[in-house]
Amino acid sequence: MESKSILILPASIDQTRAHYVIPGSYKYLTQKIRLSDFEILNDMSKPLYFGPKGIYSLIKSLQLINQNGVVIDTISNTDYHIIKMMQQSNPVQRDIYRLLYQNMCNSVEIIGSSQIQLTEQAGKQDVTKIGSYIDISFMSDYLMQRNISDDFMTISIEWVSPTQITGGYKFTRPPSLYVDEVLTAQPVDSNDVIVYDIIVPDKLVLYSENLANDDGSYDVRQLIQSSSEVRLNSYNQQIVGNMYFYMPQLNMNNSISNVGLSRALTFETKINIISDGVQLMPFNGLDNDAKRLAHLGDMNGGDLTIPGVGAYYQITVEPSVYSPSKAVGLFNPNTDLNYVSTHNYSCVGVNKMVTGELVIQFSTKAITLEKQQPIFVNILSEVKRYYSRSKNQTGNLTVSGGMMM
Hints:
Adenovirus Type 2 Hexon, domain 4; 2 domains; six-stranded antiparallel sheet; five-stranded antiparallel sheet
């Protein structure tokens, strides 16, 4: 198949959002849509580094809109892509890996049999010095489920606030959209109905009685469990695939810190799900870290990168007593994140139609800066959707094969 890349300038762009229009006057590959050819600088004239979310830290939300204004796909929380990227294998071409997954710091170098370190070193190869692009197709399962299209489509992107990036950021040259036009006789996708996953978020709230000492240390043996049992209404009459749970780190003002799925000071997380009166997982659900890590790998069908696995375990030089200064792990000097007992994400494979109710039983031992400080548990769930091109409509897919508006 022969193709050529076409550059599409933004129809409109400012500091908060951008709009790109694919006119639909030619055939194009839906799986190779990306933003590129841009320059970005730190507001403080310092090196710019992202956390585990990588280059997707720049995007707050994304929408794909057809010619009649129907929203086909929407991504309102890009944290989901952290787990997607952590399932990618580390290829031999380390530098190519860096270009694809900007500064996630999940790529590692094996110097010798007894030494391992993060690829990213202090002050080297920040995002302003290496080629950057944002893979739009990777973000949307709708685009990945298709191959060749000639449909008109508007891509609407909302940028994160500069305050969400350490030191701020600004585009000195705005991103351009690149699509690959198909030059040969391959036909446009024949399927009228496209089935794909969208991510539907929800949230739980916990409260903790555990406070760290003035030096940040605490005795793990003295922690009190916080628990919640909540019925979620966001997924009724929907086919739910994987559900991802994580507790984002909070700043002093209770705003979410830009460290992706990471939260230090969380231990012994347990998750159980009851759907329509049936417990989905036997033997008390995911009641320890080993089960949560195994389930995450099983449901995603792949291995985690080494920092992703290591972050499930608390390793310190002093048993039972934890202190940030004594934590042992792969340390990222650019984002001040230690990959040890910091990633609290979990995955539960529901893989069924929720007809009545979905009850989440969640408990953890968490340390907070203040007593009764709320702890938010974010939930990102894969939900089956469909888009009918001929009828120009989208909706939820049901187990009977019907389509529900």
